[in-house]
Design goal:
single chain; 157 residues; alpha+beta; Homing Intron 3 (I-Ppo) Encoded Endonuclease, Chain A; 3-stranded antiparallel sheet; two-stranded antiparallel ribbon; 18% strand
Length: 157
């Protein structure tokens, strides 16, 4: 159970189910969904079937702009502080995330130490990034293996 200061509105009335932690996060103390985001069958401010952080963000900032989604700048999924949430594109949200796609998008060198930038960076059609030096090396090794198989096949005739 989080400890901290209960959140109150301008009139000093305590807002239900939230506490402020040391980082200024408004921690939702009721139910969360399977991914850890604050949820409620009856969201705050009359919202229903929305995640709580989205309903509170919209109360303070208006509707979420089309094509954008909410990103927790604090990285705390049960935080509902609208100051900790920013409207960003899906790709920006993925880049910032701690998921493998976000982690990989921030890498500046490949596993073998080559730079992942400029002419050495291949961006594939699915958005994945690849080291050109390593790709060329794998292609050469694959070509050598094919030639060796062909040679063995001819010798076995």
């Amino acid at each position: 159970m989080p400890t901290g200061i209960p959140i109150t509105d301008d009139d000093g009335n305590r807002l239900p189910s939230m506490f402020v932690d040391a980082n200024g996060c408004w921690i939702w103390t009721r139910s969360t969904d399977g991914k850890g985001y604050a949820c409620s069958s009856r969201g705050p401010f009359g919202a229903s079937s929305k995640r709580v952080h989205k309903a509170i963000w919209e109360e303070f900032n208006g509707p979420m702009p089309d094509g954008l989604q909410s990103d927790h700048l604090c990285r705390v999924r049960c935080c509902v502080n609208p100051a900790h949430i920013e409207a960003v594109t899906s790709s920006e949200n993925n880049r910032r995330s701690m998921a493998p796609t976000g982690t990989n998008s921030r890498k500046t060198i490949c596993i073998k130490g080559h730079a992942l930038s400029g002419d050495n960076l291949i961006i594939k059609s699915d958005g994945n990034r690849e080291c050109r030096t390593c790709r060329q090396s794998r292609d050469r090794e694959s070509q050598v293996r094919r030639q060796e198989r062909k040679l063995r096949a001819r010798e076995s005739r």
